[in-house]
Write a structure and sequence with these properties.
By secondary structure, the chain is mainly alpha-helical. The protein has one domain (4-91). Helix content is 59%, strand content 7%. It contains 4 helices and 2 strands. It has helices at 11-25, 29-42, 55-65, 78-91, and strands at residues 4-6, 52-54. Helix 1 (11-25) crosses helix 4 and helix 2 packs antiparallel against helix 3 (55-65). The chain is globular, with a radius of gyration of 13 Å. The protein starts with a strand and ends with a helix.
Length: 92
């Protein structure tokens, strides 16, 4: 039985989230591949309406993000950390 979660995050926030994560993960090819594979399902959101993302995809994303200290992003814009925390909380 497939479950899904509704993601209630503004599409512009996805851009900020991925900007920060891209900067953080760009040096690790395995993490980059995992992020690129799952990013397309999240960008199905781009039509401007809320879409659902399957729980197994969310779980794969978390397994990728949990393998690195994501709160230590080197991006100088502190608000990206806050948006990432909000995104994580939306899944919890």
């Amino acid at each position: 039985m497939a479950s899904s979660l509704a993601v209630d995050v503004d599409p512009q926030e996805w851009s900020a989230i991925f900007k920060g994560l891209d900067a953080y993960f760009e040096t690790d090819k395995d993490l980059r591949m995992a992020l690129d594979l799952d990013r397309q399902s999240l960008y199905d959101y781009r039509e401007g309406e809320r879409e659902t993302v399957e729980v197994d995809r969310a779980a794969r994303l978390f397994s990728v993000y949990d393998s690195r200290p994501v709160y230590d992003l080197s991006d100088p814009e502190e608000h990206i950390n806050k948006r990432y925390k909000r995104w994580v909380n939306a899944w919890m």
